[in-house]
Batch of 2 targets.
Target 1
Amino acid sequence: MFFDKSIEHLDPADLQWLVDNDIREDDRLDYKRDMYSRDPKGKHELLRDVTAMANHRGGRLLVGIDEDDEGKARTVVGVPPAGQTDHAMWIQSVCLSGIQERILGLRIKEVRLTDGKVAVVVDVPESPNGPHMVCLDGENRFWMRHGRQKGMMSVEEIRDSILRVLDNQGRIERFLQRREAEILENAEGRCWLALAVLPAYFRAGAAIDTSEVQLREQIRCLAGQVGWGEPYPILEGVRTDNRTLYWDDRDPPPLSDYIEVHRNAYVEFARRIDLHPPLGLYYDAMRETKNLVSFVEFVADVYSHHLPGAPVVVRFRLFNARDMWLLRHGRWTVGEMRRRWQRQHLDLGEFLVQDPAQERQWLPKRICGR
């Protein structure tokens, strides 16, 4: 079904499904029979259509679909393929240069039809950083989709869009604060590393089916690299953890690692960092980088399956890290031991990643660089 598929997996049959089922245009679906012209008029029309959808609730723009007077898909007509610069690359380029703020998670795909023509699908996310303005040639206007039409945004609509973004940022911050309070409560004064990822447009509702077999297999694979344990259900979703084994089994073994995936698409990896006399408390950069790479690969796979193309917020923190020093290359030096962290916690802050699946190779370097 068209609406349940990520843009990467769409094929001609999915487009024909729209025709066979009389799917009508609405505020999140827009049909265009012909490709936008590459002159200034065509560029402005493209940018208005894309920003209007982003400033509303996101949706999909389909080029090469003919519609009837009621807005129902009538025929998959396609458009001729472009020359040296294909339609998808051209649309991406125009949007990058003609929209402020940049629309995070915007994706475009050409679907090749059997007659040699193509249909172009523009996937516009619900934006976490709106409102978006058409700035090409000094237009400097905001547009919003209303039903099957678009119009310039009023002052009130622009204000509401800004407040919606601020409200989303507040939801993210409140959620992360609650998670961090739980980590600190259970830390018992010990040092813990916590790496968290969540959607940039964050909701409390379900975005991931945490009972899915494939997800649990992915967790098992990751657990084999950073810990151990069979995934088990928790109130928020699913979790696996690792506990340090003692020769004396009279006391329950303490928790040393865990991974959680919540239904709202929040993913958290945490690991206890112990004191090592006489060296004290230190951060082993080589070891933690390996864990970090594994975690990023896991997140990229989860999001590419459940929320493809969705931008995410990444947060890295070390709790109870006072007097910690950095072991860079597996061998310690006196100079490294003297440079110790002087505050209770170390917070690298939050940063935005446009698409974890596409940026999985350099994301660990970006985190380590901080």
Target 2
Amino acid sequence: MEKVCVFCGNQPESKTSEHVLPQWLIELTGNPKRKAEFGYKHLENGKLAKRKFSFDAFKFPACKSCNQSFSEFEAKTKGIAHKIITEDPLSSSELSTLLDWFDKIRIGHVQKTKIIYA
């Protein structure tokens, strides 16, 4: 199967791995090795089995340029997440950034689902 960037869908020239959920969030919310279920896989006997991944291993190919373009965005979002945890108020700009980040995660999840089920 051809590897494609989880963000743009193109074949990366210079490849990195991207956690669909960022490593800082995985570590912030618990044991990075904990298992999560993401969809199903078809077994040879025709049955379905849940796909299980540890959060720290749940990563996909990304273009180096796509991955780097999101690094500042991730840093801003990490600061916003800490403000939420400490119950500090968010500005409208920070709320907009957070909503944009949710979209990035959603798009990454949709793209990785296409990769898994292709």
